[in-house]
Amino acid sequence: MNITDRFLKYVSFCTTSDENTNLTPSTPGQIEFAKYLRDELKAIGMQEVDLDENGYIMATLEANSEELRAKSPVIGFIAHMDTSPDASGKHVQPRIVKNYDGKDIVLNEEENIVLETAKYPEILRYKGNDIIVTNGKTLLGADDKAGIAEIVTACEYLLQHPEIKHGKIRVGFTPDEEIGQGADHFDVKKFGCDFAYTMDGGAIGELEFENFNAAACKITVHGVNVHPGYGYHKMLNSMRIAYQLAVMLPRWETPEHTQGYEGFYHLVGMSGTVEETTLNYIIRDHDRARFESRKREMEHLVRKVNREYGEGTAEIAIRDQYYNMREKVEPVMHIVTLVEEAMKNVGVTPKVQPIRGGTDGARLSFEGLPCPNIFAGGENFHSRFEYLPVQSLEAAYAVILEIVKLLNR
To answer: What is the pTM of this model?
Structure first.
């Protein structure tokens, strides 16, 4: 099966994750997809194919050279099976726009859903490419089914070409990465690699070994409800207090006003009544000291509200999610330069940049598995305007093969 057909098959599985189920994996579609991948890995000739009770898949491509088995490091490639709950992943209907002409792409004529170059000018870089899009009603799923397709196709090629000598290679596919739980049950010791790569980046050429420090923050504001006609000096409207707290944060330190290494506070959910309102934030910063300062600022604002309205009016719970992998990758920077060389060898210009987000690799790096992130090729992730240039998909696959060749030269 060629890589494009493989990817199109993968996106037929609905694998949207859900942080509210308290299950692992969080949704049944992920197990269905995992079983398909397990069977596919066995069919192409992979060994030690294992699907565990938590929906994690691991498999081995054994060394085909005794010399390399003894001296070559064990390398891993990792991708995640779930798609983001930010947009529907059900009944994805992909199509390929051949030889893209640089104009707006009508995704859904009936509902006037258009991928406009004015809003998404990055697509102009792919003029002349074949671009996979959706019908505008769902995301595509290149994040991260493109990564899985690239890994499986590379393994299949190596199995079919034993003249390419290599050491032991491991692959791992995880559930629930999009809800921050992809590394929760990943057994690093069982995976048994010296280092690994997540194939979970975006546009062609992206190579990342530093990411946000990340935390989730929930603020609960308690109010007092009485008849509004008799609320004088009695009513305490939790929604109004929550709004007051929200606007105390700097308005320019939000996702829509930050880029590069700039961190932010992001209000991702707000719900409430007069009696109780919750604010759900994510806190992000590449710099660890600024990250800790942002968390303290949230706690300070809660204390400020409590001084004005009474102790216990607002409560805060902050949970760290992951940290910047840079400190764990820098001591082994040869694993980054290896990818840079591989990219150049296959005609891809490396774009080393910080991740304005995180990957499974961030947490795995802190568990003893250094794990930089390589592009999977898609753009506009988590959106119905997501797309994937076929040539980027093929380039990522070529990079994997070149990494293997360089590592075992």
So the answer is: 0.90
Instruction: Classify 396 as helix, strand or coil.
Output: helix
- Percentage of residues of the chain with pLDDT beyond 90: 97
> 326 is written with which tokens?
């840079």
CB 17 within 8 A of CB 83: yes
177 is catalytic: yes
CB-CB contact of 388 with 153 (8 Å) = no
Tens-place pLDDT, residues 342-371? 999 999 999 999 989 888 899 999 999 999
Residue of 40, 82, 143, 176 marked catalytic: 82
Give yes or no for a contact between 239 and 272, defined as CB atoms under 8 angstroms apart. Answer: yes
**Residue 83: closest CA among 141, 24, 136:** 141
Grouping H, G, I as helix, E, B as strand and the rest as coil, residue 340 is helix
List, in order, residues 6 or more apart from 306 with CB less than 8 Å away. 312, 313, 314
Residue pair 85/179 in contact by the 8 Å Cβ criterion = yes
- Active-site residue, selected from the candidate residues 144, 156, 177, 206: 177
283 bridge partner residues: 215, 265
Token pair for 249: 């944060």
Q: Is the Cα dihedral 244, 250, 251, 256 positive or negative?
A: negative
pLDDT at 174 over 90: yes
pLDDT surpassing 90 at residue 26: yes
With 90 as the cut, is the pLDDT of residue 307 above it? yes
